[in-house]
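Thread: "does anyone have the structure for this chain?"

Original post by V.I.:
We have the sequence but no experimental structure in hand. Need at least a predicted one for the grant figures.
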Amino acid sequence: MAATGPTAGSVRAPGLGQVRGPRRAGSLPGVLGQTALGALVPGSAFWIQRRHVLAGCVFLVYALLLAGLAYTLLARRQELVKLLVQSQWLTATVIVLAACYLAWAGVVVASDLLSRPHELTSGQRMGATAFTLVVCGVLAAPFVVGIQFASAQRSFIEEVFAPATESFSATRPPVAGADDPWLGEDRVNVLLLGGDAGPNRVGTRTDSIIVASIDVSSGDTVLLSLPRNLENVPFREGTALDRIYPNGFDGPGDPLQWMLNAVYPLVPDLHPGILGRSDNEGADALKLAVSGALGLRVDYYALVSIPGFVRLIDAMGGVTVNINEPVAIGGVTGVREPDDYLDPGPSQRLNGFEALWFARGRYGSDDYERMRRQRCLIDAVIDRANPGTLLTRYEKILEAGRDVLRTDIPGEMLPAFVDLSYMVKDAKVRSVVFERSDDFTPESPDYAWIQRVVAKATSPGDGAGGGNGGGGGAKSAIDSAESSCTYDPVG
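Reply from O.Q.:
Generated one for you, tokens below.
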């Protein structure tokens, strides 16, 4: 009779019976199964192998990481987004993702090696190794995507939102601390510009001029649209340009060359360096002009290249707007018929090319109608910038944005703007379009009246009262665009 005794891999303690030790798989399929299980639930293969202490440690780390990620995504998403607009945290994200992948892949490799029985042939060992490499390759995919996203985000922020120490503006406010980023002001005012620079044009004319005035405590926003052909624009009082143009922006020759949209290209040519050190003298000059016209402080600007705007909308997968009357694609009134039209209707989905003509179409229209459409397009872009769109099209949006966006918002202010954007998303967005009326003409504007309208629209409350008054003209100017983005077909 064969002698009996402890089996391989086990020990016997006197009086306590057999104590089972680590166990390996019995065959190649068992090895492959434990390797796959170790990838799906890290530590599970170690538990099957009776390496309970090692399994418990891996389970604990895995559970803590999952719980932390779930808590962050569900309860602290805004704080996460704030971290992901800061270069140093994006660099840390890349490092953490790489470390997590290496640790997880290490668990998979260990699950394979510790499960292999000694009886495997060399061919079976090679098969197990190949399977482990494939599993690690599949496991790498989400981490590679995350690293690509973080790297693209970091590159975008560093290129577009340079830190205040590396970029210069003569008109933006100083960078404040996180506890009071808006320096005690009730509103932050951002000048949104659409520039017509392109391969067949010399210089940049800012044909779309909108100020987003945002209440920093509620996110309520008023979009103030100025016509590009506004004349005799005053610069902010007390500035160097105000002293040169005490009666407003004007000069010899054709008055059409001295309209509001000429400030951006003309001031740097006529008065280089007059505002001090600046990365974009045209934008600084235009901020002072818009500030003087509206009677409010303009803090920052964001310039979007109109030709590049097509790429940005396409990168977002299009936008949805209501179209109340046909909008011409191409054409010049009295000279050339349009190539086509955007048809009226509710919830029309536009690609980049169509969105460009929705915003800029002139045939059979005027600047004021275009301004209202531009405001509606801004609303549509805000609505389209939802988490689902950003997640699935993030790299395309960043690539397009890098080419079309120029701004003086420093990187240090991005966390504060993230907080503000969350409020704006759920707040009231209203508009004031300064269009030709009994109270307003762009050729001889009453800037005192304009400033009363702005004060009324940006005063605390619903904007229908308070401020400096302004009479019926102010009320009609505020209300003129209230329903312009709803579907209310003309005729």
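V.I.: this helps a lot. The CA atoms of residues 324 and 489 lie 4 Å apart.
O.Q.: and Residues 187-233+291-479 form a domain with the Aminopeptidase fold (CATH 3.40.630.190).
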